[in-house]
């Protein structure tokens, strides 16, 4: 438990802790505490989190833990796990954790036995996947399905896509996967041109089954498939719907046995554990999917029981709070150093930014301080040769999460040495930096003229003190990936609690959708010459003319 701190206001205590550190550099904190590297590390479920390169000391950590206590984190956490309607603006429980624990303690929401509902749907999904993977489920012409196209966007795309890619070494059914998210003709027609319609299964994934992009892609895919299969009814034999609104799918012609469901207490960006994960089950099979769920469940248990100072999601969240609210860092860079995790930054981007990109508290009042950061990133090594320049020497401080996987199937040790030497060097360089004096001395020692050395010293020096976490995962098995994803889910939850916001709604996407409907109507008929601001009006007219 944290030691008591003098300030009654836990936010002020953070500033006091920051002031007490003075101008001390992060590198110096290691000189003051020989055990810092291990003291500021924690490990659970095969994931080591080294947060010792964060610019915090013991007082700062205590203040952060006290802040977590002051915001009733433990109570809020239990409220989530036990099905309270913590998504207050939508009046819903938040129970993605129940999806990975079908045999947990009894849980009822809206009079329904949650465990039974989750277990029952999982059985249906497993049976369907088993039949398709074994070749028992046949195409209209009696052959095997070889290709799966997932039509969905946001949470109905990013999660399954990321996991199918990350667990590609475990894919054992010889199926090809395509993820059609964008309604742009280039993407839709491109995928349709690449697949064999006689061998392809389409999964139409949409929690609401109202998303314009997904429905447009579905209609185009169905029309294209109907041409091959002779009729819409026959083509629908190659389609499944995955949704929390089964009636909407039935209204579009899906047969009941081809609709897989989940409840509205599963947020879209938290839904890969539900029927939305069907592409994953098809790719790696029910047994491996159960391992993915087990890994997430293990992280849930860790999050629910570990003290703050040893709790991975809480530590990730608290260091993020320090960076956002004390250091005023407005972004978070995520850089996996493993090609299998290439889609992880985009996945976490939606998870974090759609959850915590909010400007009001639970009572709808403006927040007093910054909330969710801009989350961005890509594979680390590629980033080094593209945007790391700005991270090292730009004018803003950009905290980084480095993610490495220690063992890979079929690994070439020499290649892995290159990868890890880069990753560790980047974190070291970001923290330690290099002073002007150091650089100048080196250049003079190498024989450079003093004026030239003076000129270059500024260009070649590095400010350092850029915060980073290093996460080392022992292997990228389904179990570990489940734990990793749950780790980031809970991190986002903790930050939302501390900022006092509802992390589970997304009203911010509504206005654009609403205006988009009006503009769509104009593009179909005539631009309204009295509507919109002058800029939008002129652009609508220009696009309308181009699309005639
Ligand atoms: O517009 C944002 C959003 O609602 C996300 O929250 C969601 O993941 C995505 O669109 C897709 O929604 P649906 O699964 O209902 O099609």
Compact description:
This protein has 548 residues and is of the alpha/beta class.
Counting helices, strands and paired strands, the structural category is alpha/beta
List the uncertain runs: 1-6
Number of helices: 23
Q: Roughly what fraction of the amino acids lie in strands?
A: 5-15%
Query: What share of residues is helical?
Result: 40-55%
Question: How far apart are the termini?
Answer: 67 Å
Q: Based on CA inertia axes, which overall geometry fits? A: globular
Q: How would you state the average pLDDT, rounded?
A: 97
- Spatial strand arrangement across the major sheet: 1-2-13-12-10-11
Largest sheet: 6 strands, mixed
Query: Which hetero compounds are present in the coordinates?
Result: 6-O-phosphono-beta-D-fructofuranose
Number of E strands: 13
Radius of gyration (Å):
26 Å
How is the quaternary structure best described?
single chain
Question: What's the structural blueprint in terms of helices and strands?
Answer:
Layout: H1 10-21, H2 26-32, H3 36-39, E1 41-44, E2 47-50, H4 58-70, H5 73-81, H6 96-99, E3 108-109, E4 112-113, H7 114-134, E5 147-151, H8 158-166, E6 176-180, H9 185-194, E7 200-205, H10 212-229, H11 232-235, E8 239-243, H12 246-251, E9 259-261, H13 278-305, H14 312-326, E10 331-336, H15 344-356, E11 374-377, H16 380-384, H17 388-393, E12 400-407, H18 413-432, H19 436-445, H20 450-460, E13 468-475, H21 478-499, H22 510-524, H23 534-546
Helix pairs in contact: 1-4, 4-14, 7-13, 8-13, 13-21, 14-21, 15-21, 19-20, 22-23
């Amino acid at each position: 438990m944290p030691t008591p701190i003098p300030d009654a206001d836990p936010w002020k205590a953070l500033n006091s802790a920051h002031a007490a550190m003075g101008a001390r550099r992060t590198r110096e904190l290691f000189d003051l505490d020989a055990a810092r590297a291990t003291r500021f590390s924690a490990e659970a479920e095969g994931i080591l989190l080294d947060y010792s390169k964060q610019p915090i000391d013991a007082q700062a950590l205590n203040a952060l833990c006290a802040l977590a206590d002051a915001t009733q984190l433990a109570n809020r956490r239990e409220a989530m796990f036990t099905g309270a309607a913590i998504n207050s603006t939508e009046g819903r429980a938040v129970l993605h954790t129940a999806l990975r624990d079908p045999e947990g303690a009894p849980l009822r929401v809206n009079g329904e036995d949650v465990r039974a509902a989750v277990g029952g749907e999982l059985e249906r999904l497993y049976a369907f996947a088993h039949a398709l993977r074994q070749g028992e489920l046949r195409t209209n012409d009696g052959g095997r399905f070889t290709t799966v196209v997932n039509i969905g966007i946001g949470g109905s795309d990013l999660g399954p896509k990321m996991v199918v890619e990350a667990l590609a070494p475990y894919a054992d059914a010889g199926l090809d996967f395509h993820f059609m998210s964008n309604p742009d003709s280039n993407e839709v027609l491109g995928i349709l041109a690449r697949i064999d319609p006689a061998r392809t299964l389409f999964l139409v994934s949409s929690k609401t089954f109202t998303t314009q992009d997904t429905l447009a892609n579905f209609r185009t895919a169905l029309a294209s498939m109907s041409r091959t299969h002779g009729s819409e009814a026959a083509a629908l034999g190659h389609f499944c719907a995955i949704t929390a609104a089964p009636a909407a799918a039935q209204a579009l012609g899906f047969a009941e046995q081809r609709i897989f469901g989940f409840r509205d207490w599963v947020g879209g960006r938290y839904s890969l554990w539900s029927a939305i994960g069907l592409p994953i089950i098809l790719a790696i099979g029910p047994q491996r999917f159960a391992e993915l769920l087990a890994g997430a469940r293990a992280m849930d248990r860790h999050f629910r029981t570990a003290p703050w100072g040893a709790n991975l999601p809480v530590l990730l969240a608290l260091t993020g709070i320090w960076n956002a609210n004390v250091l005023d860092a407005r972004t978070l860079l995520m850089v996996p150093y493993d090609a299998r995790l290439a889609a992880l930054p985009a996945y976490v981007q939606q998870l974090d930014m759609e959850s915590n990109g909010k400007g009001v508290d639970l009572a709808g009042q403006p927040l007093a301080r910054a909330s969710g950061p801009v989350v961005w990133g890509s594979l680390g090594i590629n980033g080094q040769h593209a945007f790391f320049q700005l991270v090292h020497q730009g004018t803003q401080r950009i905290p980084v999460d480095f993610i490495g996987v220690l063992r890979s199937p079929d690994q070439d040790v020499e290649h892995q040495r290159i990868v890890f030497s880069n990753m560790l060097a980047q974190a070291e360089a970001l923290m330690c930096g290099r002073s002007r004096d150091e650089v100048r001395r080196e250049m003079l020692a190498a024989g450079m003229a003093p004026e030239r050395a003076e000129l270059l010293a500024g260009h070649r020096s590095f400010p350092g003190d850029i915060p980073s976490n290093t996460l080392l995962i022992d292997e990228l098995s389904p179990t570990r990936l489940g734990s990793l994803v749950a780790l980031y889910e809970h991190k986002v939850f903790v930050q939302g609690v501390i900022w006092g916001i509802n992390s589970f709604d997304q009203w911010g996407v509504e206005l654009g959708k609403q205006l988009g409907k009006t503009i769509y109507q104009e593009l179909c008929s005539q631009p309204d010459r009295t509507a919109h601001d002058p800029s939008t009006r002129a652009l609508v007219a220009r696009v309308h003319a181009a699309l005639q």
